[in-house]
Amino acid sequence: MSLFWRIIAFVALLAGSAAAQQVSKPGEPALDVSVRAIRIGVDDLDAAVKFYTQHLGCEKIGEFRPMGFEMLTNHGVDIVLTKTHGGVNVPPDGCHVRVNFKVPDLDKHVATMKAAGVTFTGEGKSAVGKFATFVDPAGNRHNIKQLDKADPALTSPQVYDIGISVTSMEQGAGFYRDVLGFEELSRDYYPPVVPFKQKGAAFFILSEDAKQTAPYIYGMTASVGFALETKNLLKSVEQLKKHGVAVLHEEPQRSGNVMFVAFSDPFGNMHELIQYADAPKTETATVTVKDLAWMSGRWLRKQGKDDLEETWSPPLGDTAMGMFRWNRDGKTWMYELMSIETEDSGLVFHLRHFGKQLKPWEEDEPLTYPLKSLKPNEVVFEHPTESDPKRFVYRREGDRLFVRLEPEDAAAKVDEFEFTLAK
Fold it and tell me: Per CATH, which fold does 282-421 belong to?
């Protein structure tokens, strides 16, 4: 073993030792973070993109290879593939993080993947259905599962939840609850698992099924973890340190408009804290409507006796088209016609309100909001002079779409509408 790898192994040993001793400190507040994406470290980006798109229902979005990663989406859940120096060999009883994909027919999907040369390591039954365990080309372990309660709308693999293997449920639950701020959903399935309430793109479960710490070495081996978004990266890092958490970067790292710091849970599972900065104009000018494909779909909201509907077509050419309808007491109150168009300055969001018989509310021009910033599954359009609303924010989390209307006055009322994807 070279001196370099001896040093790396020693650093990993120290991180694992520190992680094993982590406990939440009474009186220290929990972090305010949410799951922005699933982060999967792989040693071959091309092989990983092919694997996850061919077998697991993922689609590639954007071009991020120059920054050292690839971005995939799976039914609205973002998966970031990052480049590592090598693969990983997860022991059968080792702590690790895995993605559980639900499929309509487990036996058929297993047979198809095996015929393509995918390695499976086991199968089993959980409280919600049967599953089979496989490894990706980098050695990361995941499951595909068929739920006992079938979803008739399911036609391709879809992220169901994230499994985090731990050696101690009390220590694990304490970390993810009291340090990271996630809420336990139930103890009905313990042992061996405890699910946590969804906060962000996906929900996760802790599974007390391991006997040794994770074999992950950040940046060196393949691994699976979360990209946890925070509004204040430096403050969150300080909070982690006060809780005794093993932080793997002394200073925030940066990739594009994302700043991040990696850390370890008590079992050697690696995650990242991330914070987005507004994209500079030079970056927003290169964005196309295809980068907003995640908005597509028919989105519904029940608000008291009112029914709200917003529909976005898939991008076509240089335009995406949208329609909004608000029904009150069974009658249409107002419509909106919307477009997102590619112009010389970049993407621009256009909006016009209509009453019955499509009589326009705006007497002159439609409302126009140029692109302000874009990050995975979130886009912000901002008007240079209009104050209410000053900006429109669209954000997708799984099968939910949030539309936020923000005024210029920070103290004024903010309107946010949560829609659910129609099945």
Answer: Lipocalin (2.40.128)
